């Protein structure tokens, strides 16, 4: 059968969109990064390589910033058979600047020198002025040097066909039409696709929760399986059973599945300790929206919490001291966890060790008594913890934190609110819950991805959480253009400052595994993106004669 075989993948969470300029969560990025390609890729050794670019970008000083020139490769065809041009590349980068808050915020960091909280007409116009085309080259005029540019282009320069999009009622690339398409709610690309990636979309059966893909061959591309079936299966035990029964080739399994799968000898268990993700991660809102239903009375007391309660560092420092880290590793992570320096995952800062984590209820009680000049301890509080109900590590993290909080004072009442991932994400980005247990995977493989998205007060999420810190802002500015030997110390300084201020909280994180049938080998992540498989990497083993 060889490469003409098909692969069935059991994942979780339905994709929200197939639009490459809107996709911002794992469920969508998984199919999108196999349907579309960017200007640069990564080799198996994680070195940069031109993909849709004809060569790596050249950056030269230009005014106070950089001028970046990217030659566009010829001979690449979209899935509809038409040839990709430099105009399509210009259009695609421009469309990314106007389509959705998340990707546009990342692009603003590159072009404007700072992320944006919300995508509006002024920010979109400012970005579009910095994107142009010269012959067969894309030209980007950056407001200031941006060291991780190549890392960014691997993941966030996905190319679509301008004419194909316009024929479906999407933006045609004209400046006068920008505002009509700004910050798209729904787009024609939500459930259609026409990229240059290794697989083209055949069908999205929403009722069956399945996406079907067929191999698309480009010159020099790796030949993967002829077809891919990507299924959304919520129940983790069902995903495990499918793998054991041979009903799927790859399954997203939880750490507690590892021993059962390994004992049966028919499954590859490939550990991913270097994955650029941090899970679980507690997001702490320093300023909750006053209209949030989770604040109760909105004042300290048995039924309430001040909207700015966690703006006091003592209340934030209380959280990790309440948590039984050793028990969590033992009971939830099968005895093995990775210590992170939140919000950085361990692989982002190699050689940097976090402060030892241990439950200390006496110190936690001291921090509680110190918060707000003693007001919180005198009046008490009610804390609601939101968590992802079907994610074991996150749901159990909420339980462990609730247990510790109630032990340090009888005046602390804790409630756990379990919900699905879309609702949890909505609460997080609206800043409507004091504590949210979720996770975070790298937007691109550079520590600045975490600085820009999770620590810069101007970015969407820190803004929603109420970050206001001039020291932190200064450190973020220092990091943005730091190159060569200057990068390591500035990112370590940011990590230590964020750790001291307890901006985020993470117990030891779970180690992910790739779990798949031994029929296959060579399976890898797409550009090392967490939870995003490279469909073309599946190679069928040749049976021994």
TrEMBL record:
Pfam families: SBP_bac_5
Segments forming a coiled coil: none
Residues covered by the Solute-binding protein family domain: 48-457
Recorded superkingdom: Bacteria
InterPro entries in alphabetical order: SBP_5, SBP_5_dom
Protein known as: ABC transporter substrate-binding protein
Organism this protein belongs to: Amycolatopsis halotolerans
């Amino acid at each position: 059968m060889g490469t003409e075989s098909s692969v069935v993948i059991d994942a979780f969470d339905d994709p929200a969109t197939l639009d490459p300029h809107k996709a911002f969560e794992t469920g969508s990025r998984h199919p999108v990064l196999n349907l579309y390609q960017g200007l640069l890729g990564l080799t198996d050794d994680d070195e940069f390589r031109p993909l849709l670019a004809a060569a790596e970008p050249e950056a030269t000083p230009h005014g106070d910033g950089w001028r970046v020139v990217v030659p566009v490769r010829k001979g690449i065809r979209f899935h509809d058979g038409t040839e990709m041009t430099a105009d399509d590349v210009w259009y695609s980068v421009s469309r990314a600047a106007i389509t959705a808050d998340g990707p546009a915020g990342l692009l603003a960091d590159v072009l404007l020198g700072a992320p944006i909280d919300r995508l509006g007409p002024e920010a979109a116009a400012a970005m579009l002025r910095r994107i142009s085309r010269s012959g067969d080259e894309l030209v980007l005029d950056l407001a200031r040097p941006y060291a991780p540019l190549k890392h960014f282009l691997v993941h966030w320069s996905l190319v679509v066909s301008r004419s194909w999009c316009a024929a479906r009622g999407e933006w045609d690339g004209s400046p006068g039409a920008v505002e009509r398409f700004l910050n798209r709610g729904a787009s024609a690309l939500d459930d259609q696709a026409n990229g240059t990636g290794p697989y083209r979309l055949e069908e999205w059966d929403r009722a069956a929760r399945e996406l079907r893909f067929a191999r698309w061959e480009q010159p020099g591309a790796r030949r993967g399986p002829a077809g891919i079936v990507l299924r959304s299966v919520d129940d983790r035990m069902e995903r495990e059973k499918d793998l054991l029964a041979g009903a799927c080739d790859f399954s997203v399994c939880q750490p507690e599945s590892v021993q059962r799968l390994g004992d049966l000898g028919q499954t590859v268990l490939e550990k991913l300790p270097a994955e650029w993700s941090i899970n679980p991660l507690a997001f702490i809102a320093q300023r909750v929206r006053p209209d949030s239903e989770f604040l109760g009375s909105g004042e300290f007391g048995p039924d309430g919490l001040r909207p700015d309660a966690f703006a006091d560092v003592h209340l934030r420092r209380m959280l990790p001291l309440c948590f039984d880290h050793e028990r969590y590793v033992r009971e939830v992570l099968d005895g093995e966890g990775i210590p992170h320096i939140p919000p950085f995952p361990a692989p982002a800062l190699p050689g940097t060790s976090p402060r030892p984590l241990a439950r200390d209820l006496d110190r936690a009680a001291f921090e509680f008594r110190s918060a707000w000049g003693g007001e919180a301890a005198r009046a008490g509080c009610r804390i609601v913890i939101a968590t992802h109900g079907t994610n074991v590590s996150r749901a159990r993290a909420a339980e462990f934190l609730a247990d510790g909080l109630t032990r340090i004072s009888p005046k602390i009442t804790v409630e756990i609110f379990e919900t699905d991932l879309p609702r949890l994400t909505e609460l997080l980005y609206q800043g409507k819950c004091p504590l949210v247990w979720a996770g975070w995977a790298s937007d691109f493989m550079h520590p600045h991805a975490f600085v820009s998205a999770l620590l810069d007060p101007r970015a969407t999420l820190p803004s929603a959480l109420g970050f206001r810190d001039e020291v932190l802002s200064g450190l973020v500015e220092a990091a943005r253009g730091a190159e060569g030997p200057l990068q390591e110390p500035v990112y370590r300084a940011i990590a230590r400052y964020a750790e001291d201020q307890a901006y985020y909280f993470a117990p030891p994180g779970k180690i992910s595994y790739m779990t798949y049938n031994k029929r296959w080998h060579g399976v890898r992540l797409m550009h090392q993106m967490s939870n995003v498989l490279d469909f073309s990497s599946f190679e069928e083993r040749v049976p021994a004669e």
